[in-house]
Amino acid sequence: MNIAVCLKPVPDPRHYGKLTINPETKLLERGVAPMVINPADRHAVETALRLKEQHGGKVVLVSMAPPEAGTTLKEGLAMGADEAYLLSDRAFAGSDTLATARVLTAGLKKIGSFDLILAGSASADSGTSHMPSQLGELLGLPHLNCLIDLSLESSILKMKAKTEYGYVEYEGCLPMVLGVAREINKPRYISLMGIVAAGNKPLITWSLHDLGLSPDDAGLAGSPTRPGELHRPEHRRKVQMLEGGAGDAAVEILAILRAAGVLS
């Protein structure tokens, strides 16, 4: 099987407190936090590697990200993926999910044909859950999201997709585009040998021109989604000084709480 995994570097959740949004561009300021593999995408890589171990083939990583995301892709290579493609160009900055899907679709088509395309069901930084469906539509392939179980039996995919109240079982034929939820598996640990091997695996970078795209296809120009105005809320507290002993202060506090409707 030839399997592609669309992998997104996201800011490390342990540093979310440092993240800010540029009030002019409305874009996330990503330089203040280190980038890691999107948690759900890590499960997609694990799913691909297990299918490869069972049925043979290769696993290819594809990511639209800034140049420094090469380090994140090498982590996926160290897990066991065979090669990686980084789609990186300043023209991609500000892409919404549709523009991102266009870029990823162009990259996937340029690489070649795939039996299966996997992605995480949602990204940790935006959480739209759009990507698997948008990729499927642009590629003209069947697609399904939020999978919690997946197996291949005699060229038939058997799948479980979680819903609000449980799950639904599906069967489908390859090729497909699938989004996997974090419940589907437990990603493997990266070994020292995996890290060493990753250094010798192909990591190819393609630009807008390499993909044959127009500047109007990506970035802010290719994104129909437009963020609104941003306002930083002010946090103010009213201070009232109480005088007298503890008993007098307690009586006054109760009176204040009853006046505010907190106590009856």
UniProtKB/TrEMBL annotation:
Please give the CDD domains that the UniProt record associates with this protein. Answer: ETF_beta
Superkingdom, according to UniProt?
A: Bacteria
Every copy of the Electron transfer flavoprotein alpha/beta-subunit N-terminal domain together lies at 25-215
The protein, known as: Electron transfer flavoprotein small subunit
Give a GO molecular function annotation for the protein: electron transfer activity
Record-linked SMART domains: ETF
Against InterPro entries, the record matches this protein to: ETF_a/b_N, ETF_b, ETF_beta_N, Rossmann-like_a/b/a_fold
Q: Name one Pfam family in it.
A: ETF
> Cross-referenced Gene3D superfamilies, in alphabetical order?
HUPs (3.40.50.620)
